[in-house]
Write a structure and sequence with these properties.
There is one protein chain. Helix content is about 30%, strand content about 30%. With about 130 residues, it is of the alpha+beta class. It has one domain (about 5-125). A five-stranded antiparallel β-sheet has the order 4-1-6-7-8, sandwiched between helices. Helix 2 packs antiparallel against helix 3. The radius of gyration is 14 Å and the shape is globular.
């Protein structure tokens, strides 16, 4: 499905004083309706990404780099993947300017959600824009 938007989970983290922005993504077979979140695929991508981040903890202390927006799920067109997303990632890794990253992400994505969980509650996808 070349026309289907791509779903990407991003983690803005710091490890031993260095920024990292691991991500995990997949094309969507079905797209969540406007006003809804891609629950199933979003949860799968977040879990995959968090497992990779957790494995990194062997290499040093991990810290969220952007508070509640440190774990994001974004929907973007396939055309944005090859250049735009890597350029944004590189810029954030070099500068650490989270506000600029969020502004640039908003410009290239269709929708975005922060991923969180509260005690005794399921994983929540909250619209960011």
């Amino acid at each position: 499905m070349a026309d289907s938007p791509y779903l990407v989970a991003l983690a803005l983290i710091e490890q031993d004083g260095r920024r990292a922005l691991p991500l995990s993504g997949r094309s969507q077979k079905s797209i969540a309706a406007e006003g809804e979140a891609p629950q199933e695929l979003g949860h799968v991508l977040a879990l995959e990404l968090l497992l990779r981040v957790w494995q990194r903890s062997d290499e040093g202390v991990l810290k969220r780099a952007a508070g509640v927006e440190s774990l994001l799920l974004v929907e973007l067109s396939m055309e944005r993947l090859p250049e735009d997303l890597p350029n944004l990632k590189a810029a954030w890794l070099n500068t650490g300017d989270t506000a600029a990253l969020m502004k640039a992400l908003k410009a290239i994505t269709l929708r975005a959600w922060s991923v969180s969980v509260a005690k005794f509650q399921p994983v929540s996808l909250t619209p960011v824009w």
